[in-house]
């Protein structure tokens, strides 16, 4: 667009996103402002160096999820560290107007902490608040969207009043399709010959720093009678070609199954061109970078793109419906699709998509008149995201049990499978793929350094460890335990408090713990929630073990690790610990709480929940 | 050293930015040796207007004993080192960056040393200056109007090699977001090296932002009171029973629908060929009852709450419907 037709000065939209929600919302803000003819630049926070580039923009919008312990997500951490530098003058951003939006979950202790900190820091550096900040809550009846849309509306109204369009110019209508900035196009008319037999199994996206290994074993470790299928997956690492520490994670990029892809191709009428060569064109100075990775699967065809890059089983968001409304000529379908984009009908959208977990593929099969043009495919279908899993084995090479040559990388995966009102069973995209892996299958992993465990050379590491790790939370603690035991033997003290449903259903690594307890390497206390009439969880065990825990934590300076499912568990664990401190220290509650906070600041209370 | 090379440049093409001050502020920077030649310093400074000229010692700047204000000066002069005629002035990157940040856009930096610019060209480019020549051919460094992408990002500086200046030039010419007026880019007033961020002491404690910080104002949601008619959501690890309750509701719906479908399947296997129209007209849960909407075939997006086909894919009008009750095991 010509500069003279643009409204106002350039607007910067930054996002720090963990699972893609904040990034999606940033995209929506961008498109909404582009339709109002603003000059917008939307980037991931880490991609911007604040010192040289931030103050160029007079209007800055920051969207952030909260992760870990109230922290900024990984893709905003570098930016954030720089933003926190003490030496920055307090009036540095005095010419900047800004606002923030947070994606949060009110069941988390540090609800929307990241976005609030960002907002506070902008104010501290002299920026002026353009409009009130917004906070989205997963627990809201309409989810995060429930509060996002009112905030967006307020933002757009304020910006439009401040920077009105030049005379005679109207904003583009909401259903106007913006020109694609990045797009696919067919580059040949003949089917290519694939270099491999199995385009799902034998091809891998070349993610930066990814390594390809092979599956050694994929074993179900919950009783067959138990409703949940949890896998212990072992990946063999030849020689010592990779190193990791307890607390590290590996990210795995799932793949779609060929049968689903066939359905998609059929549904969209792409079957005849499914194996023709495809090219991907990227704009050099886009308003937003493409969410697809820099290196796409090779050879690139519709089939391989759909298997490896496009999340056709994702639950569609409102923006999806806005786009597909343009690709149907069936008035009944179009009308209903547009209703789903109407803020008035947000609860109907929720009932249709989120509540039953209906996938994009299913929606397209239902609205069968919708035909997405190839050049819009990557705008409409979200990119496949990698998922992170804590490493459950130690790098020392002494994993118990039969091992291949080299060392074993092990993970615990709870397969996601459940029923909703939709007849066909719901399955997690990543866990479904992991469950299908067989011995010998190649698998591509990216190691990611974690901060759950302090470095083995530090004083903190060498303190006694109290590990509170129910369910699959025990995975990183198993890695830590084996490392501590093999390297330091009886020198380091270890306590594990483990909880699960039943002694005989999902008591992971039962024999291993028994071995370690017998040889005095480990003190183990357990809670089996369904083995007796009264529910029994790790927090009950904590109260029972007050004496032991007080001795370790207060007298010996132990480090407490809490790992497992987020939500109520970490909250209940903290409450139980506070009660222990009150009782054993004969403290008032405030003092006990302050001690826990002090432990956190010292690095002696470390939490990883998902 | 001809007089006019040290006079502040007051030529008309030189306008200070309107948002700071309208008076020209000048900065004179002195090499350490100047302090032992106070008469030289006096002589050099005599031509300046004392009220609008700041004087700083380069070594104090380098030691971070003093700092320069940001975006203040319209001209900067580095005095010659009186202790040696052939000495070439080396300026540390940190000091150069401080000077750069203290200058207004379009401000100039000059030196009395003739060898100055020739030796340090690369450093100047890296700091963001443009190298120009004035009427006598002596080198003048100018701070460009837009400092945005025109300066090389600090992180990559260390990796540059001296003979790569041509690469640097092209990096400087990268396009920069256009604006309708000259913005004043506020620098932070310091330079950060890669390892400066290793130490947490250089950062403020982020928890204080929540504890004592200003959180601005929060937008109020349009309807704060929960609507009794609205559907509720259960937490991820619900312990109060709401999740079970909601799942129970879905289950009941699913079972009712399954029952209706089972009845339909029986009819089908009894030889009655069912088309979509038949299905739309018959409610299997109550014998003889007609359906009211006729949209069942369109899919869940169009079905009513009690529709027996809820949870099934859409089907085409006129199509013979195959009802598959069996599902894969959970």
Automatic annotation (TrEMBL), chain A:
Its cofactor is FAD; FMN. Gene3D superfamilies: 3.40.50.360, NADPH-cytochrome p450 Reductase, Chain A, domain 3, Nucleotide-binding domain of ferredoxin-NADP reductase (FNR) module, Translation factors. It catalyses: 2 oxidized [2Fe-2S]-[protein] + NADPH = 2 reduced [2Fe-2S]-[protein] + NADP(+) + H(+). It is an enzyme of class 1 (oxidoreductase). One of its GO terms (molecular function) is flavin adenine dinucleotide binding. FAD binds at residues 357, 387-390, 428-431, 610. PROSITE patterns: FAD_FR, FLAVODOXIN_LIKE. NADP(+) binds at residues 472, 529-530, 535-539. GO terms for cellular component: cytosol; mitochondrion. Residues 208-455 form the FAD-binding FR-type domain. It is found in: Cytoplasm; Mitochondrion. Keywords: Cytoplasm, FAD, Flavoprotein, FMN, Mitochondrion, NADP, Oxidoreductase. Its main location: cytoplasm. It holds the Pfam family FAD_binding_1. InterPro entries: CysJ-like_FAD-binding, FAD-bd_FR_type, Flavdoxin-like, Flavodoxin/NO_synth, Flavoprot_Pyr_Nucl_cyt_Rdtase, Flavoprotein-like_sf, FNR_nucleotide-bd, NADPH_Cyt_P450_Rdtase_alpha. Its EC number is 1.18.1.-. FMN binds at residues 17-22, 65-68, 103-112, 138. Residues 11-156 form the Flavodoxin-like domain. GO terms for biological process: iron-sulfur cluster assembly. It comes from the Eukaryota. NADPH-dependent reductase which is a central component of the cytosolic iron-sulfur (Fe-S) protein assembly (CIA) machinery. Transfers electrons from NADPH via its FAD and FMN prosthetic groups to the [2Fe-2S] cluster of DRE2, another key component of the CIA machinery. In turn, this reduced cluster provides electrons for assembly of cytosolic iron-sulfur cluster proteins. Positively controls H(2)O(2)-induced cell death. Interacts with DRE2; as part of the cytosolic iron-sulfur (Fe-S) protein assembly (CIA) machinery. In the N-terminal section; belongs to the flavodoxin family. Belongs to the NADPH-dependent diflavin oxidoreductase NDOR1 family. This is NADPH-dependent diflavin oxidoreductase 1. It comes from Tuber aestivum (summer truffle). The lineage of its organism: Eukaryota, Fungi, Dikarya, Ascomycota, Pezizomycotina. The gene is TAH18.
UniProtKB/TrEMBL annotation, chain B:
InterPro entries: Anamorsin, CIAPIN1, Dre2_N. The keyword Iron applies. GO terms for cellular component: mitochondrial intermembrane space. Residues 293-307 are annotated as: Fe-S binding site B. It is found in: Cytoplasm; Mitochondrion intermembrane space. Residues 218-323 form the Anamorsin C-terminal domain. Gene3D superfamilies: Fe-S cluster assembly protein Dre2, N-terminal domain. GO terms for molecular function: 2 iron, 2 sulfur cluster binding; 4 iron, 4 sulfur cluster binding; electron transfer activity; metal ion binding. This is Uncharacterized protein. It comes from Tuber aestivum.
